[in-house]
Each structure stands twice: as structure tokens, then as C-alpha cells.
UniProtKB/TrEMBL annotation:
GO terms for molecular function: 5'-nucleotidase activity; metal ion binding. The keyword Hydrolase applies. InterPro entries: HAD-like_sf (IPR036412), HAD-SF_hydro_IG_5-nucl (IPR008380), HAD_sf (IPR023214), Pur_nucleotidase (IPR016695). Residues 409-443 form a coiled coil. Belongs to the 5'(3')-deoxyribonucleotidase family. Keywords: Coiled coil, Hydrolase, Magnesium, Metal-binding. PANTHER family: 5'-NUCLEOTIDASE DOMAIN-CONTAINING, CYTOSOLIC PURINE 5'-NUCLEOTIDASE. This is HAD family hydrolase. The lineage of its organism: Bacteria, Candidatus Blackallbacteria. It comes from bacterium (Candidatus Blackallbacteria) CG17_big_fil_post_rev_8_21_14_2_50_48_46. It comes from the Bacteria.
Length: 509
């Protein structure tokens, strides 16, 4: 082992330094890789990566506040909003992913996997869930409901709540809730299209992009294990080039450029269209950024490509869908469409996962106490049912018996009294237990988020976001570099999927 260390230190001192640092890093469960569906990495030949929020992890506060401010400026400039909105301040902790925006009613909504409404905000004012019929919301109308599914959409949702507050305060009365939504959507899209957002990021990349010190080692480990890597991003080449250079070019691992990590680089991919449409590939001139139609039979590592579609991609690399793994952060654009339309295996990067798991560890004792209280309530409810059934049987017996001796009447009366006392005791204990459960559940929820609660759950149910993560991603984790801690050809196996009648298996453990 020492000989190997000396050889590595001599041949690649930077790699030796990074490896030593990484091995000595204390890794807890927040950096785990979680399995929804079995995935045998030995059968994967190509591994693809999105860039934004996948390889490039943005500094949350900085990037969201920048998008918020630029959108405000465009609302004033392009949509004639009053200049007073420029004084609005951004709160990067106000919104979580997985919410729905009802731009007919001006509400933000959190729903669970059964589409039941769990929490509602009108602007910044909490509402009762019964503002929706049967506590459910119809997600099928895009003219009314939109999703807060990406990290890029958080400032958009928060700005919407602030402008709805202005409407209710009588300071923005000339626009409907839907018009406000459309205006925000137009302006935030414009900040992406006209380059105003990206130019600010490129002016000070270190401010907006977190450089994972172990990303290069992880990519290198994939390559040394025989995997072929490709980059598939919606960003333009000029932006991709500068961000990737910042992330990888300063790590001296015998790669002369970030480009050397990837067999194929595809920019401006227009996902999810890449997985649904038949757009051809184009080759990008690196100097002029002009695009020409690509008509070759194979990709070249020294070329940059744009647009395209997954069918042509698979044909060019001569690989089947289940031999391709794609890692991204966007449930709809990266994971759902690639899994549903192309049969590619998928990994979802959930940046919030590390904080969410840390908070779960912090409330672990409360969660265990909640389980004990819930079990106690269930037992009391069962006892109540038994007492009530026995009392009902006793009353039927009394009715059917015509004549009773004094002793029999006394015995029946005593039994009735005991059963009624048992019912009162159960009801009293259930009420006390319910109060404790309600208080404890509120404390646990507020520990995750004061308004929205945990990201992946609500109460005892999985949230809409948690349900999507579970349904569409083969694996999920908090960052790409977590793969370094696992064998590259690992067979990721999911937990046994049990049904309610199998619950005894869990209890026996």
C-alpha cells in the first residue's frame, strides 16, 4: 500500500492530495446514494450529466437573489410595474420545491401523493385547505396550475407571493393573479434568454457556483473504470465552457482541459424536447458559435454538438437505452422524460437532501416518540371498538331477555357500568394522545420549514415531490461526487417493497 501511495504521489501529486483529502473526509448518511429501482452499474456503458445544479452546484442565496432582482427590474422595464417593487427583498428560505402555483386564485399549494391539499398560502397568508373542493386540486389545467419543480423556479414563486400581497394591500390593483404570473414568467424567462443572468454569473463565478473539490476525482474514477462520459446541457456553449473550466480545469489530474473528461459534449439540448422530438444534431463552431447540420456517422471528442434527440444519440454511440445512465436535477426535464421516453436509467440530484437528512437526524427522538404515540392511539382505538361492541351486545341481550332475576339485573348493570367506564377512559386517553400527536407533529414540521414542513413528506404521507422522486428516478443523491464512495460497478439494490399486509416484517425487525 505504501509503495502504491509513493508511486501515486510521484506520478500525480494533485490527485494524491485530493484522494488523501477525500479519504480523510468524514462522510455521514447525508451523502448516501438512495435506491428506488435496482441498477446494475456493470451494465452501464455511458454516463451522462446535466450541468446546471448537477455538475455545477449553485450557491443558493446568491443565484436566487440575482434572478429575483433581475426579474424585478424587467417587470418595471418591460411590463410597467411600479418602481416601488424594486425595494422588495428576497427570502431564500420561503419556498421549497414540489409546490403548485394556482395563478387563478393567487395561491401556493403543497399536496401529497394522493393529490390532497395539505397547506395553502395566499400571498404570504396561510389559508385552510378547504378552500379547495374535497381538499383536492386539479393539476391538469396548465392555464391555472404550474409546478415549482426546479431550484431555478424558487425565486419566481416567492416573487409571486409578494406581488399577490401587494394586490391584497391595494397597491397593485390593475392586474389579475394570472396576469401577474404570466408577467413574472415572461420576465424571468427573459433574464435567461437575453444573457443578463448569465453575464452576471460569469463576471464572478466563484460567488455563484460552488466548486466541489471532489468532482474531478469522481469523474476520473468513472473513466478509469471504463465508463464513457458525456455532457448534455440546455446551456449555450459559451456559458458551459466557462462554468466547466472553473469546475475542472484547475484540478491537475492529467487532463489538459475539462473537455478531456467527456467523450461527447452536447449543448443547447432543449430538454425535455431532446427526449420527445426529432431535432437533428448540429456541430458548433467554437470561435463563431455558428451551428452547421451534423451528418457524420459518429461523434468526435474534439467537437461540440448542439440540439439533437435521444434516438439519434443512441444510434451514433451504438448503445441501447438501458446501457445509458443520465444524472440530472430536474424531475421533468432530466429524469422523468429520459426514463419514460428513452428507457435511460436515471439519477436525480437533490441538492436539498443533505440538509433534509440532517434535520431528520435532529428530530429523530421526536419522530420515534410520534410513532409510539400513534401506536398508543391505535391500541386505544381498538380497545374503544371492543368496549363499544360489548356494550352493544349487552344492550341487545337486555332487550331480548323478558324477565331477569334481581341478581341478573345487578350483574348486567355492573357490566354496563364497567363497559361505559372503559369507553370513557379510552375516549379521554385518545383525546389526550391526539393533543400530544398534534403538538409534536407541528414541532417536527416546523423544524424542517416553518410554513411548508418537510420536503419529502407531509404529516404521515409522502409529498408530491417525494412521490415524484420515488417514481421517476432509479437512484437519488445530493451531489455527483457521492459516487466516489461506492464501487463504480456496484449493483444498487432497492429495499424490499412491502404491502400493508406485510407490515409484520417491519415490526419483527
Amino acid at each position: 500500500m505504501e509503495t502504491l501511495k509513493r508511486a501515486l504521489r510521484k506520478s500525480s501529486p494533485e490527485k494524491f492530495r485530493l484522494l488523501t483529502e477525500l479519504v480523510e473526509t468524514s462522510i455521514d448518511g447525508t451523502r448516501d446514494i438512495f435506491v428506488n429501482r435496482p441498477l446494475n452499474m456493470s451494465q452501464i456503458h455511458y454516463i451522462g450529466f446535466d450541468m446546471d445544479y448537477t455538475l455545477a452546484i449553485y450557491n443558493k442565496r446568491a443565484i436566487e437573489e440575482l434572478a429575483f432582482v433581475k426579474t424585478l427590474e424587467k417587470l418595471v422595464e418591460l411590463r410597467n410595474y411600479p418602481e416601488q417593487i424594486l425595494d422588495l427583498n428576497y427570502n431564500d428560505e420561503a419556498i421549497i420545491r414540489g409546490l403548485l402555483m394556482d395563478h387563478q386564485k393567487g395561491n401556493l399549494i403543497k399536496i401529497n401523493r394522493f393529490k390532497q391539499v395539505c397547506r395553502v398560502l395566499h400571498g404570504s397568508i396561510p389559508l385552510e385547505t378547504n378552500v379547495y373542493f374535497n381538499d383536492k386540486v386539479d393539476q391538469s389545467d396548465p392555464q391555472r396550475i404550474s409546478s415549482v419543480d426546479t431550484l431555478f423556479s424558487l425565486p419566481e414563486a416567492y416573487l409571486y407571493t409578494l406581488l399577490v400581497d401587494l394586490v391584497e394591500a391595494g397597491q397593485l390593483t390593475s392586474r389579475s393573479y394570472h396576469e401577474i404570473y404570466e408577467d413574472i414568467r415572461f420576465c424571468i424567462d427573459m433574464t435567461h434568454r437575453d444573457g443578463s443572468l448569465k453575464s452576471n454569473i460569469l463576471h464572478d463565478i466563484a460567488k455563484y457556483v460552488y466548486k466541489d473539490p471532489h468532482l474531478s476525482l469522481t469523474l476520473d474514477k468513472f473513466i478509469e473504470s471504463g465508463k464513457k462520459l458525456f455532457l448534455l446541457t440546455n446551456s449555450e456553449f459559451y456559458y458551459t465552457d466557462m462554468i466547466m473550466e472553473y469546475l475542472l480545469d484547475t484540478d491537475n489530474l492529467n487532463y489538459t482541459s475539462w473537455r478531456n473528461y467527456f467523450e461527447i459534449v452536447i449543448v443547447n439540448a432543449r430538454k425535455p424536447g431532446f427526449f420527445k422530438e426529432n431535432t437533428p444534431f448540429y456541430e458548433v463552431d467554437e470561435k463563431t458559435h455558428e451551428e452547421t447540420l451534423f451528418n457524420e456517422n459518429a461523434f468526435q471528442a474534439d467537437k461540440i454538438y448542439s440540439k439533437g434527440n435521444y434516438i439519434a444519440f443512441e444510434s451514433l454511440i451504438q448503445a441501447k437505452g438501458n446501457e445509458v445512465l443520465y444524472i440530472g436535477d430536474h424531475i421533468f426535464g432530466d429524469v422523468m422524460r429520459s426514463d419514460k421516453d428513452s428507457n435511460w436509467r436515471t439519477v436525480l440530484v437533490v441538492q436539498e437532501l443533505e440538509e433534509e437528512l440532517s434535520k431528520t437526524e435532529e428530530v429523530k427522538e421526536k419522530l420515534l416518540r410520534m410513532r409510539r404515540l400513534t401506536n398508543k392511539w391505535d391500541k386505544l382505538h381498538y380497545e374503544l371498538h371492543i368496549f363499544s361492541s360489548q356494550l352493544n351486545t349487552l344492550e341487545n341481550l337486555e332487550f331480548s331477555l323478558r324477565e331477569l332475576t334481581p341478581a341478573e339485573s345487578k350483574a348486567l348493570a355492573k357490566t354496563r357500568e364497567e363497559l361505559e367506564e372503559g369507553i370513557r377512559r379510552c375516549q379521554k386517553e385518545m383525546e389526550k394522545t391526539e393533543t400530544k400527536i398534534h403538538t409534536l407533529r407541528a414541532e417536527i414540521s416546523a423544524h424542517y420549514h416553518p410554513i411548508w414542513g418537510p420536503l419529502f413528506h407531509d404529516g404521515d404521507e409522502i409529498s408530491r415531490f417525494g412521490d415524484q422522486v420515488r417514481d421517476y428516478a432509479s437512484l437519488y443523491t445530493s451531489r455527483v461526487s457521492n459516487f466516489f464512495f461506492y464501487p463504480i460497478d456496484r449493483y444498487y439494490k432497492s429495499l424490499r417493497d412491502i404491502m400493508p399486509h406485510d407490515r409484520w416484517l417491519e415490526l419483527s425487525n
